[in-house]
Amino acid sequence: MVNTHIRTENLNLWFSENHVLQDVNIPIYDKKITALIGPSGCGKSTLLRCFNRMNDLIPEAKIKGKVFLNEQNIYESRIDVTQVRTKVGMVFQRPNPFPKSIYNNIAYGLKIRGEKKSVINETVEKSLKDSWLWDEVKDRLNESALSLSGGQQQRLCVARALANNPDIILLDEPTSALDPQSTAKIEELCTELKNKVTILIVTHNIAQAGRISDYTAFMYLGDMVEFGETKKMFTVPKDKRTEAYLSGVFG
Amino acid sequence: MFKGITYTASLFTIIVLFGIIATLFSEGLPILKHVNIKDFLTSPNWHPTHFPADFGILSLIVGSLVVTAGALIIAIPLGLGSAIYISEIAGTRSKEIIKPIIELLAGIPSVVYGLFGMAFLSPFLIKVFGIPTGLNAFSASIVLGVMVVPIISSMSEDALSTVPRNLREASFALGATRWETIVQIVLPAARSGVVGSIMLGFGRAIGETMVVIMIAGGAAQIPKSIFQPVRPMTAAIASEMGETVIGSPHFHALFGIAIVLFFITFITNLITEFVFLKKRK
Amino acid sequence: MTKRELKQFLGVNALRFFIAVTAIFLILFLYVIISKGGKMISWSFLTESPKKYMTEGGIFPAIVGTFWLTIISIGISLPLGVFTAIYMVSYGKPAWFVRSVRIAINTLAGVPSIIYGLFGLTVFVQLMKLDVSILAGSLTLAILALPVMINASEEALRSVPQDFREASLALGATERQTILRVLLPTALPNILTGTIISIGRVAGETAPILFTAATFYTRRLPTSVMDEVMVLPYHIYALMTEGAHADKQVPIAYGTAVVLLALVLLVSTIAIIIRYNIRKKRKW
To answer: Is CATH 3.40.50.11240 the right assignment for the domain spanning C44-281?
Structure first.
């Protein structure tokens, strides 16, 4: 039996006049990996950014509908956005470590919440271990994060998100800027992490979705076309458009 | 042929720089025949027209530094504050309007600021503070500070804008507030540009002539309070050059002041360059 | 409110406060100048010579003086600046030379304007025996404007895509033809913008012309570049610091300031509008 961790209710989003998400309804299940796929411009990244209210940062964005996180609508006015974002971690398309030391990158979220030094130290180590980076960086925690390789930087970003002890991690095409080896590592990491957190990943790589996800949502032109178990969808897609996309007709 | 012309033009800038340095030294060094370098730099007695004359420029240097420091105390929070506001908080539309306005303000001739200080601010300060003269280090600092705000603001804003958006997003996504993002991520990332803007503001303030000649009050003394008049280096050069005999010790002393001024701005420039070069690497 | 929210609240409002203080001061400044000076502006103020030792009459000679100083100095520094920029961008060798030029430009840009005045006094007025004259002042201002001019031209030339240049060379054009027919025409609007900005700067400078060109009071217009002239910024300074009739001189100074301000702001506004349009239209 799976529990719903997040769900949207008739979620609509406009950028100025442009209707980017149209009545999206989707459940995200607890401790599973859900992949969002679809051709570029279909709104999959935009949808992802609705789950931690990152679209609030775009002045032209207008949102209607609801997003429930543990049955609490995060778009209600009394919601503290910073708390939502602490609970919902995010990893971006390009690795974006801060121009600070490795240690301070991980400690950032904890420091701004005023955690104690001992807690921070502990969490930094744990997060780095959870993202399989500890052995590579334990001797140089004070070096700049920018000295790491691209793949390491991306795992650092994962560790940085983990340090906030989130329930959910959103990954926005996290491997599109990485080489195949680093990509494999991130994929493995995801399957490991799903024991602890719910994972939602946007990917333009169909094979990747097939490899790592339990559920897949296919989006097309702002519509949620099909949602289901990955295995089923990849073998017998219900919708013609899904079938076309999976077989590489467009994308 | 064409290449030769462009080469000569480039060479000209180097020649001009050396020309300026040579001029300053050839006209300025002879003052050391009349006063030793230690007294020149460390004596506060500037009485170039007395007999015997005193050529100590310490009070002029102090005058410059006091007014410049005062100007920066005003200009840094105002300039940096408005730069952060424009870059991080204002919307795109207000940004598109405010930015050019600031650029326009940066082009206002300093003599107009001087007029404002003399004819409006100074009488106003006498009324408000009950001080004997409104032409002093304080009023010069205010006007100079406001004059430097657009310089610091526009250059800092440029530096803040070059901080990649994805760093801000990363910070927000970790649950940081806007203020935390500004203080802990954006400002540190733009540090070299911000420092550069302040150095540029410093150079502009210490080299400014018209504002201080009109507003600082002109007394060659080490001020005991900011409400006393001072005579910054630039003011001394500009106001006394017209009254001195070419080739006289006084004339050479004014060029000597210019050497000191040149060195201060030159070193400021070097430091700025160094900070930027470090950044590029 | 949590401590974090409080910090956010205070911080953002501090920024609002700073920008408000800046705006209020600048608005007050412009208001004072324009309201007090605006009253003085009339046709005769703009077209007549000063009378009775600067206590009456207009500022026409100062307008003419500023016009000539600005035009001549830009006329000198524009070609110098563009040529230098071309060398830096197109030839750029040997590296040590380019670096030296760059250091020279950066240093010159930071030299206080009064030092340019001293240089002009020594070299143009005394050494070249030009005396206090339009020519000596223009040369001094030209040198002062040079760093801005070079930087603006260089930026303009560098913004021309490398492809354009390569395409031209690939078609068999020489380097010189490429520069004159491709590089310069493409960069021209941006160079013009830089030039206009320098015009604003040069027109408002006072310190460099104190001992090289400016005179307090003359009733006649200059007849040659060897004449000394009245100039708008210097006129403001002189009205405020010389003469014995402050009550009559200060209003004239305000009036002169409005004319100077209008001139400088008009010129820079034109530059900003041109640049805005270029950026909008640019396809590459």
So the answer is: no
Chain A nearest-CA distance from C13, in A, is 19
Sign of CA dihedral C32, C35, C39, C44: positive
Instruction: Give the domain ranges of chain B.
Output: 2-280
Tokens of residue A36, six digits: 């969002």
Joined together, the tokens standing for residue B150 give 């657009």
SS3 at position A91: strand
Across the interface, whether the CB atoms of B109 and C97 are under 8 A apart is answered no
Q: How many CB atoms lie within 10 A of CB A17?
A: 7
- The candidate with the shortest Cα–Cα distance to B144, out of B108, B92, B197, is B108
- Subunits that touch chain C (at least 3 Cβ pairs < 8 angstroms)? A, B
Amino acid at B79: G
Is pTM beyond 0.95? Reply is no
Q: Return per-residue pLDDT of chain B as tens, 281 residues.
A: 888 999 999 999 999 999 999 999 999 999 999 999 999 999 999 999 888 899 999 999 999 999 999 999 999 999 999 999 999 998 888 888 888 888 888 889 999 999 999 999 999 999 998 888 899 999 999 999 999 999 999 999 999 999 999 999 999 999 999 999 999 999 999 998 999 999 999 999 999 999 999 999 999 999 999 999 999 999 999 999 988 998 999 999 999 999 999 999 999 988 887 776 555 44
Domain boundaries, given as residue ranges, for chain C: 44-281
Q: How far apart are CA B8 and CA A20, in angstroms?
A: 59
Taking only residues 13 to 42 of chain B, the set having a beta carbon closer than 8 angstroms to any beta carbon of chain C reads: 13-14, 16-17, 19-20, 23-24, 27
Contact between B116 and B146 (Cβ < 8 Å): no
> Could you tell me the residue ranges of all domains in chain A?
4-246
Superfamily assignment of B2-280 in CATH? MetI-like (1.10.3720.10)
Chain C from 1 to 20: CB within 8 A of any A CB = 3-4
Of B104, B119, B234, the CB nearest to C269: B104
Question: Subunits touching A (CB < 8 Å, at least 3 pairs)?
Answer: B, C
Q: Is A113 on the interface with C (CB under 8 A)?
A: yes
CB B117 within 8 A of CB B136: no
A114 touches chain C (CB under 8 A): yes
| CATH superfamily to which A4-246 belongs | P-loop containing nucleotide triphosphate hydrolases (3.40.50.300)
Cα–chain center distance at B36: 28
B chain contacts of residue C234, beta-carbon cutoff 8 Å: 111
Contacts across the B-C interface (CB distance below 8 Å):
240
- Angstrom distance (rounded) from CA B102 to CA B114: 19
